[in-house]
Amino acid sequence: MPQSLSVANVMHDPELVLHPDTDAGDALDKLLQARLGAAPVVDAHGRLVGVLSEHDLLLDLWYHDYQPEQSAQVRELMQRKVTVLTPRDDLLALAERICIDPNTLYPIDGNGCAVTLSTMPLKERARAGRVWHPRHFPVVEEGQLVGMVSRRDLVGALRHLYRHRAH
Hints:
two-stranded antiparallel sheet; CBS-domain; alpha+beta
């Protein structure tokens, strides 16, 4: 098992921070200009209150048949239930958490007993058990937004694991 890294080793300052009272159209312009798919939303005290993503904006457009009567505010569209990290979180645990659903990979009941047995190889079960998780994770400490980590940051930090080994 490789040496563990923490979120603090790869987190970076957010490129864009939005506020709940920002107009959704203005927020979209900022996301597009920054070439980002999501941005954290903080209150006046810097506390994370949500994340606004391209998906949230597309969903709003769909809901209004692609003809919104008036532009909403970020607070109306943002995701409030957000997966947050701390600087001390382990990167390998994060990679595992965003890649697989352990209940699909190792289906067990409440007593820890296997509920189904599979002859499918582990790698195939892992691929079948993919779950959707966000691409961008806010890093919070004592309620304050202190950074961001993306999937790209994560794979970049783990890139060295693919190094060529001498035979």
